[in-house]
Design brief:
333 residues; Rossmann fold; six-stranded parallel beta sheet
Length: 333
């Protein structure tokens, strides 16, 4: 049976509600939420009451110092990820942090160094990686099902320009950090090495946030990738992985529940049913990354082999390059 992981939740946004709803579908002997913290105590109480969580904290300091907590899910605004994750690690807590873990390569690298120094489990919440469809895709590629892969093309467009955190520079939103990292992680998942070259262009909003991005990436041995993201229009939201033996199209590539290998070979996975309605598409699949935390910590691992810390650092470096080419990244924080 192993351990019961005692969770603290930092942040009270919609993702925290979805996370708590997904966690409740997992075995209670493995997962228990003991406290929720946020800036607005009334909202913390509301979330804690709905999800039957005993402790509500105003601010994050008390959560960091609560010795009954093993692991903290950090789901505040992007800009605060670094400070709150750092505080939790410094107080001896394992951390699952929503992506992006840091706003820059420098921030991400320092969190990884701190976790390693303190021998604590740290995972960037790249929830896509833990969907069964990704395991099945990996096995199919490894078995030579696509032959030699030469191109990956991904589109990700959702109308989020009216969401305040995406409009405001001081909230850390934008097309690269909100959408681009999902596309990058899939390209890295397939190619398993950094690009040798990358070129990006795109548009800013009036407030200096990237609202769209188009990138071309070059990899060794003739391989390429293109990605485009938009915050003002809905796109096909598909990934196409093309090899010498055909193309696999992945619908909802950041949270896929089906894998169509061919007309005769298609697999579908059923997501768990939550007690409450989810805010985001396929959020029930957050349960996969929650279970990954338990699996790793139960085995004594300090990072997930499916989303390693070195890869989080690489992704942060690539996101920095993309944002610098767009002109939205000033001197790194």
């Amino acid at each position: 049976m192993g351990l019961q992981l005692k969770w603290g939740i930092a942040g009270v946004g919609m993702i925290s509600h979805d996370f708590l709803t997904a966690l409740a579908t997992l075995p209670a002997e493995q997962h228990k939420v003991v406290a929720i913290a946020g800036k607005d105590l009334e909202r913390v109480h509301r979330l804690a009451t709905l999800h039957n969580v005993g402790t509500a904290y105003e601010g994050y300091e008390s959560l960091a110092q609560d010795n009954s907590i093993d692991i903290v899910f950090v789901s505040v605004l992007n800009l605060q990820h670094y400070d709150i994750t750092k505080s939790m690690l410094e107080n001896g807590k394992h951390v699952l942090c929503e992506k992006p873990m840091g706003m820059t390569y420098k921030q991400t690298k320092s969190l990884v160094d701190l976790a390693r120094e303190k021998k604590l489990f740290l995972l960037e919440g790249m929830w896509s990686r833990f969907f069964p469809a990704y395991d099945a895709l990996d096995k199919h590629i490894a078995a030579g099902g696509l032959g030699d892969i030469y191109h990956i093309n991904i589109q990700f467009g959702v109308e989020i320009n009216d969401i305040e955190r995406n409009l405001m520079k001081d909230m850390g939103g934008g097309a690269v950090l909100d959408l681009g990292v999902y596309m990058l992680q899939l390209i890295q998942f397939v190619y398993k090495e950094p690009p040798t070259d990358l070129m990006c262009t795109g548009h800013w909003t009036k407030l200096g946030v990237d609202e769209s991005i188009s990138c071309a990436l070059k990899y060794k041995e003739g391989r390429t990738a293109t990605l485009s993201a938009h915050t003002r229009a809905t796109m096909t939201n598909k990934a196409e992985i093309t090899g010498t033996k055909g193309t696999i199209t992945l619908d909802y590539f950041w949270c896929p529940t089906t894998l169509h290998i061919s007309a005769a070979n298609s697999t579908e996975w059923t997501l768990p049913k939550g007690k409450y309605k989810f805010h985001f598409h396929n959020s029930a699949g957050l349960s996969y990354q929650i279970q990954e935390c338990w699996d790793c910590i139960n085995k004594g691992l300090l990072e997930s082999p499916k989303m390693t810390l070195d890869e989080s650092v690489l992704m942060a470096k690539l996101a920095d390059t993309m944002r610098a080419q767009l002109g939205v990244l000033e001197a790194p924080l």
